[in-house]
Amino acid sequence: MKFTYFHLMPWPHLPEDFEETERSAWVTYPNSNFDPKRGQELYLEYLSELVYAEELGYDAIAVNEHHQTAYGLMPAPNIMASWLIANTTKAKIAILGNAIPLRDHPLRIAEELAMMDVISGGRIICGFVRGIGPEYHNFTMNPANGLDRFREAHDLIMKAWTQPGPFRWEGHHYPLEYVNPWPRPMQQPHPPVWVPSQGSGETISWAAEHRYTFVITFTPHRNVTKFMQQYRDEARSLGYEASQDQMAWAVPIYIGETDESAMAEAAPHAEYMFNKLLKRPWPVFFPPGYLSEASAKGVSRAFSGIGTQRVLAEKLNEEGQMLIGSAKTVLERLKAFNDEDGVGNLVVLNQFGSMPHDMAVANMQRFARDVMPALREHQSAVYK
Given the DSSP bridges, would you call strands 323-326 and 247-256 parallel, antiparallel or unpaired? Predict the structure, then answer.
């Protein structure tokens, strides 16, 4: 098992009555509620947590991209990744990911990632995402075109990295007379690619086709097992066996001294994340045309109620949508889960919701000391 420390950089200062007075933390929540002075303090704390994760032995540190939301203060993840490159020496830097269809010029992403890969000495993990539904509202883009833009942008970036230039790109969305990026990535033929998803069948098939690492995010564990089996089945249909390194699960985790104290400490911050930061009308998250009919049915079953119905930390913990407990309890559950899902990469959120800095750091320390070493040696029953 390998471990990635993942940060959403949430805004922890939403008002107490947010759930009663606001429809959504996405797209329309007024930015007059953002305080730049508090924002600076948060950025410095959050970045220090990511750097500290390297010291604690996490294999990678990860950032991501969202726009116009209190859920995450990272509209430009490559800026965060560049800062982390300059302040770390060993850990991989995972960008989970760049929302490539939202850019008018994906070649800029190819250039930026290549620069970071060279400067870091080959430490970049490249995440490619479509951008979730709210991003299409943010940029006034037709969500029905998102998948086609995503795939063309991906093909352009990969060809720019792997085929000598200059060459012409006669694309539908991104026609370019000259493709000849300087520099080229340090890692050859290209940096490893991870594909975060909420369980879309098209994404699972596409990730398996390209042999990319498939990352499932924030879902009850029963769905993790189902989606990972779907990924392995897709790989077999393509003539190969998917390795553990090709599968990852992103999950919030809190370690306390006992199960009871862990729940008491973590519950307010977990419920802040799922009931405030994730609050949005269903059409905001999945606007018409964003998913195919089949994928929409699957995703709605997997994520039913999240963001639209109030949920308690005890229920999230019970379903394995997040893990809260003593080190012994969480380790036992993670081993049992891994025997079912077979993932080789655990993408851990040790900071979530409104959790203060000192609490997050203590949680990181307990997880790294009391859970990570034993789980690192665990061999999933799926691969025995």
Answer: parallel
Beta bridge partners of residue 345, listed in sequence order:
2, 248
In order, the DSSP letters of 114-159 are HHHHHHTTS-EEEEEE---HHHHHHTT--GGGHHHHHHHHHHHHHH
CB 249 within 8 A of CB 319: no
CB distance 10 to 71 below 8 Å: yes
Contact 179, 107 (CB under 8 A): yes
Structure tokens at 74: 């990272």
**Coil, helix or strand for 249?**
strand
How far, in Å, CA of 33 to CA of 372, rounded? 38
From 75, 82, 21, select the one nearest 50 (Cα to Cα): 82
In this structure, what DSSP letter does residue 230 have? H
| Alpha-carbon span 92 to 28, nearest angstrom | 35
Residue carrying the six token digits 């996490």: 58
Query: How do residues 258-314 score in pLDDT, each as one tens digit?
Result: 999 999 999 999 999 999 999 988 778 788 888 776 766 666 665 555 666 899 999
pLDDT in tens, 159-204: 999 999 999 999 999 999 999 999 999 999 999 999 999 888 899 9
- The residue type found at 86 is A
DSSP state of 201: H
Contact between residue 115 and residue 183 where contact means Cβ atoms under 8 Å apart: yes
> Could you give the CA distance from residue 191 to residue 157 in angstroms, rounded to a whole number?
11
Contact 80, 47 (CB under 8 A): yes
Peptide bond into 175 cis (omega under 30): no
Contacts of 285 (CB under 8 A, 6+ apart): 26, 132, 133, 134, 307
% of the chain with per-residue pLDDT over 70: 96
